[in-house]
Each structure stands twice: as C-alpha cells, then as structure tokens.
Write a structure and sequence with these properties.
Blueprint lengths: L4 E2 L5 E2 L6 E2 L3 E3 L4 H14 L3 E4 L14 E4 L8 E3 L4 E5 L4 H10 L2 E2 L11 H6 L16 E7 L5 E4 L5 H7 L8 E8 L1 E2 L1 E11 H6 L1 H7 L2 E6 L5 E11 L9 H25 L4 H12 L2 E6 H5 L7 E9 L3 H14 L8 E6 L14 E9 L5 H13 L4 E2 L9 H4 L6 H11 L8 H7 L2
Parallel strand pairs: 4-6, 5-6
Antiparallel strand pairs: 1-4, 2-3, 7-8, 8-12, 9-13, 10-11, 10-12, 14-16, 14-17, 15-16, 15-19, 18-20, 18-21, 19-20
Helix pairs in contact: 4-13, 7-8, 10-11
C-alpha cells in the first residue's frame, strides 16, 4: 500500500486566503484503508489530525502543524437506491459532482447552500444550511456516516446504530474522526421557478413572514447605505415541468459580468476610495435588475463566487430577525462603516442536531461580508457579533466569529450531549487544533 504525501514545506490555505498553515504531513488517501493507516501513523507519531475539504470555510477549523488529511482523491462508487432515495457518497465528493449524479438518477437534495464546490463532508461538518422555512440544513438530510475514529477503527452510525455518535457527528466540526462516506436522504428531482428582483427593504421586512411562507425557498440581500434589497423567491415544480432557462447571453451578463466581474471592480474601487461605496451600492442594485427562469434545482440553488471575501454569519431565533437586521444597520451607522458587500438573510426550520445553529428552534440567518483585503472588517464583525450574540445568536461554524466554549455552551441546550459523544469517540483529542480548543474547550 502506497500513500502519497506532501513534503514538509507544502502549505495549505483556504479560498479566502485568510487562513493558512504548514502541516508536518499531508496525507492523500485513496480508500478507507489508507485513511486508517494515515490516522494510525499520526497517532503513533504524536501528531494531531485535521481534514481539509475545499477550503471554503473562513475559520481556522482546518489549521494544523500535525497531519492534514486531504480527501480529494478518496474514491468509491456512488451508491444510489432510486426506490428509497438513499444515496451513499464519498465524503470528499464536491457538491457540484454529486448534484450531476443525482440529477441523472432522477433525484435531488432537498436543500442546498449557494456554494457548489464544497465537499459533502465539509459542508456538513460546518453546518451549511441553505434556506426555506419548511426545510432544515444539509445535515438534516443525513441518514448515515462512516467514520475512521482515533484508534483507526472504521465505524458506521445512524439513528439506529451508535445513535449518540450519529446525532452529534452530523454537524461535528471534524471532532469525531475522519468522515469517509455519507448516506443522504434525497428526494425526487425537481426544478425551481426562480424570481429575482429588487424590492424596497421596508416592504420586504413588513412582509417577511409572508414571503417566507409563500415561497419554498426565500432569501434576500440588502445593500448597506441603500433602502433596497435583492429578493430571491424560488418555488418547486416537478422534474418534468418545462424549463425556461435564461438566455445564455443574458445569463452570462447577469452572473459573470454583473455578478462577478463588475462587482469585483466595484469592490476594488470601494476599497481604494471608500467614500464612493454608498453611490456604488446604489448603482449595483440598479444594474442587477430582475429575472425569472426555471431550471433544475441545483442550478438555481448554487451560483459562482469569484469575488473573494471574508464572512461572518449568525443564526438568531426566527422571531428576532427584524431586531437583528436593525442591529446590523445600527452597527454600520454608529461606527461610520462603509460596507460594499450585501447582507444576506435566510431562514430554516429547527432541527434536533446538538451543534446545529438551528438546534431546537426555527432560525433566521444574517451573513455579513467584507471584500478580501478591506481594512477594518474585524471592527464590523465584532460589532455585529456583540449585538446578535445578545439575541441568543449562534455563529456559523465555518465563518468568522470570536466566541469561545465558555459563552457558546449556554447557547446550545444539547452541548453536553455533543461533548459526551466526543469523549467516547476521541478521548485523547487526536482530532483537534487551536480553533476546536477555543470553541469546544480543552
């Protein structure tokens, strides 16, 4: 058995470029046996282990000076059961690749976030959620996990088999071991009828509950220093419903020229001349216009992200969404901040996963962003965090925040349940780093 490893000086960094490390060893296993061997080697050498996905988290969750396991070459056949909708996939599979496989099989994931390059395991570990008031995040679609634990054992878990491990590891922050396979409950493929357009922010908030109720998937983006929101209303149709795709030229203009290239130029200009940001945001809203189209669900849920940024996202109780958005606006105004990136607002149904940001409650999510390299983003993020934490807010595990285990524990009613499962799976804390010591405790 040969395992390919990187040299000592091979560094790792995330997509945003704000996190980087130089592991002692990078392991690139091609099957579960090689994962087991890599874990045992690290343990024997006294090295901790972290797992890298696609690098789309903004936190230090991956960083290590020990062993970094890259699952990009871990392959196994995708097992699809069309009768039950259960699909078992390798943990390192990218979501865009999985979506293509599912569509060909007449299936789809019930909900998705907007990033399609995440790995399946990485999206789950950090609590990726999507939007829809009748739907939970991605982890609620999980029906089984295969995990290589600290002793090198390959264990499987589900609601019936090792239920405590299964419950906690669905949003596990990589704290239980190396997830090598995931079984998902998928549903019959569907298309989405998408309507996107600008609305006055006051009108959106006045009808927030109605918009969430009337649409299967609802979200909006508010551009700071404007009174306008870009609203997305996506509703389900059967897979055989006629599609009305966008004109290719119009789609290119919307997604690539306006959504990425032009927006990137706007952000660069705003970074160099901050005083222009309010006018640039007004212009951005006007340029985006509106559009209506129908396409396979995964093509509507996801979109390319070529403009790089840093992000913080908070979950708050659903009823607090108005106060939460007012608080974000107040932080911007009170501190005289100039913010070029929109604030994203979404909703999900509550779930029963111990460290899910929607654990035990229906939730609203507010995501704040700053263009990569913009000075002062931390002042913005810390200000928003102080306000939303006071509203029983919970930070997205894959996005920047400044919380620690001491003040996170009261925010999660099932915190001790997670810790008990972790103590059993990894009592010696093989799968840890500074980030996990901060957010989960020693």
């Amino acid at each position: 058995m040969t395992v390919r490893r990187a040299r000592r000086d091979a560094g790792w960094r995330n997509w945003a470029g704000n996190q980087r490390c130089t592991p002692a060893v990078v392991e690139r296993p091609r099957d579960v046996e090689e994962v087991t061997a890599a874990v045992k080697r690290a343990a024997d050498a006294g090295r901790t282990v972290r797992v890298a996905g696609s690098g789309h988290s903004f936190t230090a969750a991956v960083l290590t000076e020990g062993t970094l396991v890259d699952l990009g070459q871990l392959t196994r056949p995708v097992d699809v059961d069309p009768a039950t909708g259960l699909v078992t996939v390798p943990a390192g599979m990218r979501l865009h690749a999985l979506n293509a496989v599912l569509w060909r099989a007449g299936l789809a994931m019930s909900n998705l976030g907007d990033i399609y390059v995440q790995t399946v395991a990485g999206a789950l570990a950090t609590g990726t959620h999507g939007t829809g008031q009748r739907l939970g995040g991605l982890a609620t679609q999980v029906r089984g996990l295969e995990i290589v634990t600290a002793d090198g054992a390959v264990v499987t878990c589900s609601a019936d088999e090792r239920p405590a491990l299964f419950s906690a590891a669905r949003v596990g922050l990589g704290a239980f071991g190396v997830v090598t396979a995931v079984t998902l409950q998928c549903e019959r493929a569907f298309v989405l009828h998408a309507r996107e357009g600008a609305m006055p922010l006051a009108e959106v908030m006045a009808d927030f509950d109605g918009l969430a109720e009337r649409n299967d998937h609802f979200e909006f983006f508010w551009f700071p220093h404007t009174a306008t929101a870009m609203v997305k209303q996506n509703n389900r149709l059967p897979a055989d419903a006629p599609t009305t795709p966008q004109n290719p030229v119009a789609a290119f203009v919307e997604d690539e020229l306006l959504g990425n290239a032009a927006f990137g130029v706007v952000c660069q200009l705003g970074r160099r001349m901050p005083s222009l940001i309010p006018r640039l945001n007004e212009r951005s809203v006007r340029l985006m216009g509106s559009r209506t189209y129908t396409a396979p669900s995964h093509e509507v849920f996801t979109s390319p992200r070529r403009v790089r940024f840093v992000e913080m996202e908070y979950s708050v109780p659903r009823a607090a969404v108005h106060d939460a958005l007012d608080a974000v606006r107040s932080v911007i105004e009170r501190n005289g901040l100039l913010v070029s990136f929109p604030v994203e607002v979404r909703v999900t149904r509550g779930d029963d996963i111990p460290l899910s940001t929607a654990s035990g409650r229906d939730s609203a999510y507010l995501a704040v962003h700053m263009y990569r390299g913009t000075p002062g983003y931390e002042r913005f993020f810390r200000g928003v965090e102080r306000e939303l934490a006071a509203m029983d807010g919970r930070p997205h595990w894959g996005k920047l925040h400044y919380r620690s285990a001491e003040d996170l524990r009261p925010a999660y009613p099932r915190w001790d349940e997670f810790q008990a499962a972790r103590d059993e799976a990894d009592p010696g804390r093989l799968f840890t780093n500074e980030y996990l010591r901060r957010v989960l405790g020693p």
